[in-house]
Amino acid sequence: MAEAVIQVRSVCKDFSLPHVRQRTLKSRAIHVFRKRREVEVQHALRDIDFDVERGEFLGVVGRNGSGKSTLLKILAGIYKPTSGRTATSGRLVPFIELGVGFNPELTGRQNIYLNGALLGFSKAEVDEMYDDIVSFAELEGYMDQKLKFYSSGMQVRIAFSVATRARADVLLIDEVLAVGDEAFQRKCFEHFHALKKRGTTIVFVTHNMSAVRQFCDRALLIEDSRIVAEGDADDIATQYTQLFTPTAHTAQSPAAPEPEEAAKDRWGEGGAHYTSVIAPQAVTTEDDIVIELEAAADSDIDEAVFGLLISNSSGTVVLGTDSLLRKTRCGGLQASQRVRAQWSVPNVLSDGLHYVDVSIIDDGGTVHDYWKDAASFTVVKDEKSPYAMTPDTTFTFERLNGESGALSPSGSDGSAQSRSDDATV
């Protein structure tokens, strides 16, 4: 049995929400007998049970207000559970409120030493790691400037860079890292990958299902303050998108799909929907995979993100991306607006049938339209493989006598060819 470094047993968390603010002694006297009626109890978490094994990268997903961040703060010791218990083995470092304890009147250099002290480092230890901290944050020219003149992104960079030096066995990561730019986020995740290889346990709260599929070994789905699903990261990511039920598809524009079509393989909150998804019938080795899309907006959307998922006939996801990851900001959509888009993918896929899922999501994580198996196409290649991809490859070799050659995977007759007359493989 693998060792559990985090154990959560029957954890509940309630918050009391007063509806009348009592500012004076008179108001307190008047409302003394109405206190019970003026306080609402919010059940943020109910009966939460799970374990996290050593070295595991666990994703925690759910809609806004479901209780994800509350759970992370209980694990970090920021909140105490109303009932239940948690147990953590090893040193735990939360990446929840980056920059807590920073002083805006101090310079960047002084704040590094201040935050390092809060993390338990001595001055000598911070001296030793100072250059690496500044280099990681890429703020070499700003260390003697007061923190109050830093942009929010610069403050996050320096806070994260200091926090990464903490000696951690368990990391708790909230989506606070999403405020950084793309290059900084990539650096963060590269750091997390390195920690994972060293056996660091990571609990990751996010709305980004691409990140869940890419990084997480396992995931939890929280809905209405309870864990409603737990298991494979890809399955949980799909279930998360299905939380956005297909209510809005039935009564929007005339081009919206029929209810019976939406119920099984299509869901979302509406706001926008695909009217057409067209993939080529067959794709040969030389062709790119081109998928044509048309969509319509049913209401205004601030920032639309278009997603693509390709899976093979066995159900294995072989490609997943979206317009934001591809550095293409589509901007907002206005009600009744129609748009056209195109995905073009180099054909590195293996021979066989493939399916296309498409989605329209906004930058807040709301799924407006998710269409599973919206289209399909067949890849036709001479090279057969049991694996998901067969990119064009070249094999080079050199004999001990100095003769060399190269093998191409596809000769004119479909067989491997060599540049060396006496080469054998």
Fraction of residues in helices?
10-25%
- Name the poorly predicted regions: 246-263, 407-425
Total domain units? 3
Number of strands: 21
From the N-terminal CA to the C-terminal CA, the straight-line distance is 45 Å
Largest sheet: 6 strands, mixed
Q: What is the CATH domain class of the largest domain?
A: Alpha Beta
Looking at the structure, the CATH topology of the largest domain is Rossmann fold
Cα-atom radius of gyration: 27 Å
Q: Which class do the helix and strand fractions yield?
A: alpha+beta
User: What's the overall geometry?
Assistant: globular
Q: How many H/I helical runs?
A: 10
* Amount of beta strand: 25-35%
Q: What's the mean pLDDT score?
A: 81
Mind telling me which CATH architecture of the largest domain this is? 3-Layer(aba) Sandwich
Q: Could you state the CATH homologous superfamily of the largest domain?
A: P-loop containing nucleotide triphosphate hydrolases
Strand order of the largest sheet: 5-6-7-3-8-9
